[in-house]
Each structure stands twice: as C-alpha cells, then as structure tokens.
Design goal:
The protein is an all-alpha fold. 74% of the residues lie in helices and 0% in strands. Helix 1 (3-35) runs parallel beside helix 6 (84-100) and helix 2 packs across helix 6 (84-100). The N and C termini lie far apart (66 Å). The model has no long low-confidence stretch (mean pLDDT 83).
Length: 110
C-alpha cells in the first residue's frame, strides 16, 4: 500500500470519527440544555467567544460551568467525552438551544 493511500485512508477515518463524536456531543448538548441546564449555564456558554467553546476536554467544560462531569455526560464513554470534537458538538448543541430561546433572557431586567 502506498503512503498516500495510507494517509488518505487515515484522513477519511479521522474525519468520520470526528463527525460521529461531534454529532454525539451535539445531541447530548441539546438534551442537557433542554432538560438540565440552568439559565446561567446557557448564558455563560453563550458568552464564550469561540463558537464551539474553547474547551479541549469535557472536564474543562464541567469546571467552567461549575457542575459535576457526570451531570453533563451521563453514561457517555469517557474517551469519547474527552475528545475535542465531542466537546465542540456539546457546546454547539447547547448554544443552539440557547439561541432558539434567547428571547426569554431579554425579559429579565434589573
């Protein structure tokens, strides 16, 4: 097998793996935002400058939100939950829910 064939196969494998993990994180992020997140959690994620968050690891995200790791990921495989593509998907999914309901945050004025 030629080096370019090996590199291409591995590149495609990595892309497929990243997409699968992103999609899994996205679905879990949406589920978490709808069922468990507090308004403050979603606001904090919305204020994060990078669109997918600047978190390299799900533990960093849990620490940022001040929540237990298990509260965020439930039964998700630990290795999957630590992958940057999973975390990016999680943040994107949660932020999408925030964006869909952001009008409620405008009502509260102090």
């Amino acid at each position: 097998m030629q080096k370019t064939s090996i590199a291409e196969r591995l590149r495609l494998s990595k892309q497929a793996s990243d997409k699968r993990m992103f999609d899994e994180g996205f679905a879990l992020g949406r589920e978490w935002a709808k069922a468990s997140a507090e308004a403050e959690d979603l606001e904090r994620l919305a204020l994060e400058e990078h669109p997918y968050g600047s978190f390299n690891d799900i533990r960093e995200l849990a620490e940022f939100l001040g929540v237990e790791l298990e509260w965020l990921v439930g039964d998700t495989d630990d290795l999957t939950a630590r992958m940057p593509s999973f975390v990016a998907g999680f943040v994107k999914g949660a932020r999408e829910v925030f964006d869909e309901h952001s009008g409620i945050f405008d009502i509260l004025v102090y």
